[in-house]
Amino acid sequence: MIAKAIPMKTAVKSHFAKLVAYITDDQDTPFRLGAVNITNCYGDEVEDAVFEVLNTQLKNQRAVSDKTYHLIVSFRAGEEPSAETLQAIENEICAGLGFKDHQRVSAVHCDTENLHVHIAINKVHPSKHTIHKPFQDYKTLAKLCAKLEQQYGLEVDKHSTQRNHTAGRARDMEAHAGIESLMSWIQQNALAQIKQANSWEALHIVLYENGLSIKLRGNGLAISTIDGALGVKASSVDRDCSKKQLEQRFGSFQPANEQALKAIKVKQRYKRSTLINNSAKIGESVRINDPAKTISAELFSVYQAQMADKTANRNDAIDKARAQHKDQIQQAKDKAAHKRRWIKALIQPGINKKFLLGLISKSLQVDIKQKNADYKYKRQRLYRQHTRQSWLDWLQQQAKQGNNNALQLLRQRHVNNDQRGNYIVKSKYNIEEKANPTQYDPSLPKARVTKQGTVFYLHDKAVIKDDGNRFHLASNANQEVLTTALIHAKQRHGYQLSVEGNELFQENVVRASVKAGLNISFDQDHLERRRVQLSAEMHLFGDGALRNVTQQQSRGMRR
CA 98: distance to chain centroid? Predict the structure, then answer.
């Protein structure tokens, strides 16, 4: 379990109503939104709670900082705590941060591999009207998560309390866009050479050979590309690259001799490239096979070409809109000047003439203001219409449209080794498995494709999650959905399968396979014996004996 506070760059962006609107929006996806809870508010509806929170925030007029706290609690893939457990975890985390009595709205999201909860908290106390900002909340959250994992039997995550803002942003960028960051590139390609340098001159030469430079920035050092387009804090690359450490080794900082460096050949440069696999930490090398690298390079070329076309089309449209706006402003000015000439020619000097000229000036100002507003709206619309996509967003779109290479790239960059949850997977003993099982694509409509390559199939108002190896389902899925998943699992992995999950899920999967008459078997002995037993019962009593069991019935069977 990981809990993370999402900071806002400006207080205006952290509008409570907008945040709640986002976290409670199903985005036309029936499985995205789970339970929505309202805490410490008088109203039971989301709209009433938002209105109440906004009124509370208005009572604190002195605070100029962010009045809304956005918290995300995420669980490991396959973990699906009950609604009561989620509510208890939310209560304990908010109390630990000092928000026990504060108003909040939370929403569970189920549209990714990891079940997660968004919590919008009012930082203004409902009765004291003072604002509360947790001190070093990342440390508090790390301790709370470690405690709650033990308390509720959740998968243990690594909770680091050493906060490195630059490294965190680099990881977030790589996870969001799928593009290698400058910091990661330096760590993988140049850090070893940097550490071997024995003087400032040698360090400048090593950096220049790798298309980099180091300069003073504030109280420290910054490593940037030679053209200065991108840069990173030197101490974020490695602690040995901090100003203090380097000056202890080489003495006071000495800038590079630009003329001498021009004679040195640049051997390599940082270039925006895709990450085939982001499961390794920043700084660790990742081995990839050549076919995947070739496919990635080909698709990335197509992506860059399409994004370049989008940029060119956007710039052309904006240039036309700018020229049109300029013409409209000039026409308005010419029209006002024409009116002024007529007034000056026909009306004698006096109060009336002055009044009419003033009306023309005011009318012109109103006209220009309206045209400027129209132009601003048009520019925003053009930017939205021609928005560039990140690499991973583009791959998601391509995968949803049926591009199998894009889907495989998404899956190869994130190997999911989590073993929790309810799923159907290939048997460990299946010697008849197809040569390339992950190439099989079920003929079901794709409701969503995640950045990890998990496809959400919507079938009979239920979700089947396919990560390329396993078919994940809810423990209470009906027999039709289970049968569909079993059919596609057989097509991908062969007749022998393995079923992992809780007892209720395993029982219902076996029942669905027997009722549908599927020619499959299970590698778990107890499930195979159960399948044979249910087959005999169906021959004796008919299909009525094979209905899905409920949680209560499952407990009774165990007794």
Answer: 27
Query: For residue 529, how many other CB atoms are within 10 A of its CB?
Result: 12
Q: Give the residue ranges of DSSP H helices in 59-164.
A: 83-96, 137-152
Paired tokens of 311: 């940029």
SS3 289: coil
Residues 6+ positions from 93 with CB-CB distance below 8 Å: 3, 71, 73, 119, 141, 144, 148
Number of other CB atoms surrounding residue 507 within 10 Å: 19
Q: Where are the domains of the chain?
A: 2-152, 165-286, 291-385, 416-558
Give the burial string for 125-152 (b: 16+ CB within 10 Å, else e).
Answer: bbeeeebbebeebbebbbebbeebbeeb
Amino acid at 71: L
- Are 157 and 1 in contact by the 8 Å Cβ rule? The answer is yes
Q: What does the chain come to in residues?
A: 559
* Selected residue with higher pLDDT from 552 and 484: 484
Residues contacting 458, CB < 8 A, separation 6+? 30, 31, 444, 445, 447
Beta bridge partners of 430: none
| Predicted local confidence at residue 442, as pLDDT | 83
pLDDT at 460: 75
E strands, 261-372, in order: none
DSSP class of 32: T
DSSP state, residue 24: T
The residue behind tokens 């008919």 is 542
Q: Is residue 104 within 8 Å of 122, Cβ to Cβ?
A: yes
Contact residues for 156 (Cβ-Cβ < 8 A; gap 6+): 146, 149
Secondary structure (DSSP) of 476-493:
T--HHHHHHHHHHHHHHH
CATH dotted code for 2-152: 3.30.930.30
**Rounded distance between C-alpha atoms, residue 96 and residue 104, angstroms:** 15
Contact 2, 158 (CB under 8 A): no
**Separation between Cα atoms, residue 474 and residue 464, nearest integer Å:** 8
3-state class (DSSP) for residue 457: strand
Is-contact 233 166, C-beta < 8 A? yes
Residue 48 has which token pair? 């009433």
CA–CA distances in Å: residue 435 to residues 151, 191, 429: 43, 40, 15
Mean pLDDT over 83-94 rounds to: 95
Amino acid identity, position 464: I
Q: For residue 85, give the nearest of 154, 152, 157 by alpha carbon.
A: 152
What span, in angstroms and rounded, lies between the C-alpha atoms of 446 and 414? 20
Mean predicted confidence (pLDDT) in 438-462 = 82
**How many CB atoms within 10 Å of residue 205?**
18
pTM score over 0.85: no
Strand order, beta sheet including 462-466: 446-449, 455-459, 462-466, 471-472, 423-426, 496-500, 521-522
Confidence band of 551 (pLDDT split at 50, 70, 90): low
Lowest mean pLDDT, pick from 70-84, 386-400, 436-450, 541-555: 541-555
Q: Which residue has the tokens 């939370």?
A: 106
Structure tokens at 192: 């070893």
Tell me what the pLDDT averaged over the chain comes to. 86
